[in-house]
Amino acid sequence: MTSDRLSLVFGALADPTRRAILVRLTEGDATVAELAAPFVMSQPAISRHLKVLENAGLISRTRRATARLSHLEAEPLREVTTWLTRYQRFWDESHERLDELLAALQGKGGRGTVARTEGDDHG
Amino acid sequence: MTSDRLSLVFGALADPTRRAILVRLTEGDATVAELAAPFVMSQPAISRHLKVLENAGLISRTRRATARLSHLEAEPLREVTTWLTRYQRFWDESHERLDELLAALQGKGGRGTVARTEGDDHG
Q1: What is the ipTM of this complex?
Q2: Contacts of residue B27 in chain A, CB cutoff 8 Å?
Q3: Is residue A33 a part of any domain in this protein?
Q4: SS3 letters for chain A?
Q5: Contacts of residue B8 in chain A, CB cutoff 8 Å?
Q6: Considering only CA atoms, which of A91, A90, A50 is closest in space to residue A73?
Q7: Position A108 in a domain
Q8: In a domain, B58, yes or no
Q9: Of A13, A44, B41, B93, whose CB count within 10 A is highest?
Q10: CB contact under 8 A, A94 and B73
Q11: B78 or B102: which leads in pLDDT
């Protein structure tokens, strides 16, 4: 995946509506009207989001009778996930650091006591 | 991770310079001057990119003497990777479909059409 393609895919994912559209498409292909239904958003606005997703290779579109169906194309998501896994050792490290910190705090006289700050509910 | 946080992280990753900065930081903490060195870009321009990365939680910054050091924070990358893995079965499927298509093409010697089953809605 080229650098520009990665930028297009990450840019397409940087919007909650577009991510929701992808989630919806995991259930099956859908028309613009079906995709627009859950949103307080016009069909032209949804169409613009679909254009961004299509441009990033995240959906393909086919015509069936008078409707255009959007179809999820997951391959670019595999590619960005591969890109991200190179950082895995760093997030593992930060978890280890956190574990060490917690162990140190619990070991040093704090006895790991967890104070309940919320009051009891029983009457 | 909230929807807005996901958007911030994906947005921060949607730029090749910012991704290159993260790659550089996997080698260790660095000053703005060190981060700017490989780029034909001013230090203020790099600082603006660092601000975006910091805002997305992807780096933290500490002061050492007169220099500000940037440090990779990989945790948000773990979180977006978790979000992406929900699509794994779809890219696995598309690989399987591709394998089937290739097998069909190789087996049937140039019969270029693959029948696509489209569901009929009865009722």
Answers
A1: 0.74
A2: none
A3: yes
A4: CCHHHHHHHHHHHCCHHHHHHHHHHCCCCEEHHHHHCCCCCCHHHHHHHHHHHHHCCCEEEEEECCEEEEEECCHHHHHHHHHHHCCHHHHHHHHHHHHHHHHHHHHHHHCCCCCCCCCCCCC
A5: 14
A6: A50
A7: no
A8: yes
A9: A13
A10: yes
A11: B78
CA pair distance A75, B84, nearest whole angstrom: 11
Q: What is the pLDDT of residues A67-113, one digit of tens each?
A: 899 999 999 998 899 889 888 888 776 666 666 766 766 765 444 34
* C-alpha–C-alpha distance, residues B67 and B62, integer Å: 8
Q: Name the percent of chain A lying above pLDDT 70.
A: 76
pLDDT score for B1: 66
Which of B11, B80, B90 faces A84 most closely, judged by CB atoms? B80
Q: Is B59 on the interface with A (CB under 8 A)?
A: no
Do the chains contact at B75 and A91, CB–CB below 8 Å?
A: yes
Instruction: Determine the residue of chain B that is closest to A98 in CA distance.
Output: B75
Instruction: For residues A71 and A46, give the distance between their C-alpha atoms in angstroms, rounded to a whole number.
Output: 15
The one-letter amino acid code at B99 reads D
Instruction: Report the CATH number at residue B57.
Output: 1.10.10.10
Q: Which domain holds residue B12?
A: 3-75
DSSP tag of B95: H
Q: Residue A63 corresponds to which tokens in the numbers above?
A: 């015509």
User: Rounded to whole angstroms, how far apart are CA atoms A35 and B4?
Assistant: 21
pLDDT per residue as tens digits for the range A4-58: 999 999 999 999 999 999 999 999 999 999 999 998 889 999 999 999 999 999 9
Q: Which residues of B107-116 are buried (b: 16+ CB within 10 A; e: fewer)?
A: eeeeeeeeee
Domains identified in chain B, total number: 1
Give the per-residue pLDDT at A122: 42
Residue B50 token pair: 């660092």
